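Quick log. Single chain, no ligands specified.
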Amino acid sequence: MIERLGEYRLLERIGTGTSAVVHCAVDARGRTVAVKELRPEFVAEPAFRRRLAREIAAQGRVSSPYVARLIGGDVSGDRPYAVMQYVPGTPLRTLIRSYGPLRGPALLQFAWQFAQGVADVHAAGVVHRDLAPGNVMILGGSPLIIDFGIAHEAGVNEVTLPGMLVGTPAYLAPELIEGEPVGQPADVFSWASTVAYAATGRPPFGTGSVHGVCFRILRGMADLDGVTEPLRTLLELALRRDPAERPPAQWFAGALQQWCGDPAQAPQEQRAPGNVLGSRVKAQAPRERSERQEAS
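-> predicted structure:
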């Protein structure tokens, strides 16, 4: 028997989360899509319907080649669901575990495109709040950000209670751990933690108990050993303890983009060793931070 959900024919289950399952499906035009459906035990809970509705609203506002596209959804029926671009790629987490850390130009390109994706999310007025290796797919060599399940609008005074973690613990910003207001700088912190993982094959704040990982995050004890310049200086800026001291994602995308083109076409200063970029980064960051604070 063919199972349908709305206009979509469900083919197979490809993922299971705490509150939802994800199906590979086909629409009326024959396009392959991903359908995220609330699990039956949560359908009667208004809070879960609202969360799915927020996810649809947040992801639907973002347009980026580095973010999975929202197609539609319906949260009013007996089986609430969201429909998204099907991404036949590999999670960054799986890729790094299988093939090892990214190196050289591939790493810089990943960091740049990932930063641009985060910047596009922020330009749409959205904070993702769960950027981590499991929520970044690699397709055709480029990253695609997925899972806006706990995203919210920028500027909304969204906080969590201290001790109640929302997101992937090893990649959370300290303000989220402490229950402080969470804005776009939290995504910048998680971007840097995820890039550090891609560069080294290990979470920058270690493994083990959640308590121990959170302690190291709050103390600023990032392990960036093995991350070379110019990336290391950028990650150090993005991992600053104070969110007001982190430049915005668009600034990081711009700083990295110059290293991802044709070196022969780049100005001499851009082709200089990493310490030169590090000096430019440190000199420019305060001005960029000031502009970001005014914009917010």
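The domain at 90-295 is CATH 1.10.510.10 (Transferase(Phosphotransferase); domain 1).
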